[in-house]
Write a structure and sequence with these properties.
The chain has 211 residues and is mainly alpha-helical. It is built from nine helices and no strands.
């Protein structure tokens, strides 16, 4: 079992990560603007199921790798450092100011299709799997017990935070999109703040001593 301070640190990192706009957030805002709150919530459940898919796949994958390959834990963490620094660089270099410029002209879809599209939007995004594979090993330590159990712990925390944040985004999508479009300084702050957090996590992982 992971200690409380590790879970709290992960929760903070997960919250900051979910605040970084991506395909899932843009899709949820688009659906909320074009088809209403209910459509946004149905789409959100599809996205969350996509998160669960990635978490299960990555959790079993990390467990298999750590048991099958000597020093795999250190290798995965080193690769994770590079990926997180790359994400930080991309965050700073992004020139997009209106991060919430969603398409409000989407056609009306059934609830089944909304859920299905939300699910596939997440599952078919290969960056999600790479993200989990680089992010989880920062907080997982073999001395804490089962790698699989730790992965699921982190996954549950991440899903709860993602659902809560995205649920609020769905509810207030229209107001948020208008406010953010009128405040481009927020976009710049968000990018640099995101880059700072990612760099800090990468440094923490790079200098963490194996026990």
């Amino acid at each position: 079992m992971l200690p409380a301070d590790t879970l709290l640190l992960f929760a903070l990192a997960a919250f900051i990560m979910v605040m970084s706009p991506g395909p899932n957030m843009v899709y949820l805002i688009s659906r909320s603007l074009s088809q209403g709150k209910e459509a946004g919530i149905v789409s959100l459940f599809g996205v969350i199921c996509g998160f669960l898919f990635h978490i299960v796949m990555v959790s079993f994958g990390l467990t298999a790798i750590f048991f099958a390959v000597p020093y795999a834990y250190i290798t995965v963490k080193i690769l994770g450092v590079g990926y997180l620094l790359f994400l930080a660089y991309k965050a700073v270099r992004s020139k997009q100011n209106n991060l919430f410029s969603a398409d409000s002209t989407l056609k009306k879809d059934s609830k089944v299709r909304l859920f299905h599209t939300g699910f596939l939007t997440n599952v078919l995004n290969p960056k999600m799997a790479v993200f989990y594979l680089s992010f989880f090993p920062q907080f997982i330590k073999p001395e804490y017990g089962s790698v699989l159990a730790q992965s699921f712990q982190l996954g549950i925390v991440q899903v709860l935070i993602s659902f809560s944040v995205n649920f609020l985004i769905v509810i207030f999508a229209a107001r948020m999109s208008v406010w953010l479009s009128r405040n481009p300084s927020w976009a710049r702050f968000q990018r640099w703040f995101m880059a700072s957090v990612l760099t800090g996590l990468a440094v923490k992982m790079a200098f963490a001593k194996a026990k």
